[in-house]
Automatic annotation (TrEMBL):
This is Interleukin-22 receptor subunit alpha-2. Residues 108-212 form the Interferon/interleukin receptor domain. The keyword Signal applies. Pfam families: Interfer-bind, Tissue_fac. It comes from Melospiza melodia (Song sparrow). InterPro entries: FN3_dom, FN3_sf, Ig-like_fold, Interferon/interleukin_rcp_dom, Type-II_Cytokine-TF_Rcpt. One of its GO terms (cellular component) is plasma membrane. SUPFAM superfamilies: Fibronectin type III. Keywords: Disulfide bond, Receptor, Repeat, Secreted, Signal. It is found in: Secreted. Residues 7-96 form the Fibronectin type-III domain. Belongs to the type II cytokine receptor family. Gene3D superfamilies: Immunoglobulins (2.60.40.10). Receptor for IL22. Binds to IL22, prevents interaction with the functional IL-22R complex and blocks the activity of IL22 (in vitro). May play an important role as an IL22 antagonist in the regulation of inflammatory responses.
Amino acid sequence: VLGNQDLQDSIKPQKVEFHSLNFNTTLHWQPGWAREARDALYFVQYKVYGQSTWQNKDECWGISSHVCDLTHETSDIQEPYYSRVRAALAGVYSSWSLSCRFTPWRETMIGPPMVTVVHSNKSITVKLQAPRSPYRRKRGSKIPMTNYYDLLYQVFIINNLLDEQHRVLVYEGKDKVIKIEDLRPGVSYCIVAKMYMPMLDHSSAYSSRQCTVL
């Protein structure tokens, strides 16, 4: 049987880290190494860097899950945050496990744009929509990520006769509607796009492919 100190150490949460996409931010951790740790409950706190007091996250207080949504708590996107997690089992509490420092504006991942493709006989019109943040305008619509960063759309064409991985950049810029002309009728073309942030030299993942035959 584990002594109290051993149990404290063996249920202590591991790998406490922030994951963030378009400012949708969650804290993730892994259970301690003890087999019993599967039954532990978890308690999450957070604070802005430099503050002395930790805040409890009420919705993540005594939970069995290994993830906690901190989107609302990290909405001041320029501020650096910390979070920490402890586990409890059979009346024994582990010590706290601390996350790394997390600054949403620097570290959130940007998602790909939404792509819609309309074709005529020799051209493709591509409509682009930037990903949206979870934060809302006064009127209620979600604020696009282009409000927070200087972002460019990158549009690539894949000519399916060729190699699947052979993506040709056909447009980079801020226009939401672009036209790709002088294409060959009867050929299948696929479009993918991504968001690019020149300042931090970050790219999003590629959007899902939109294919069409002219």
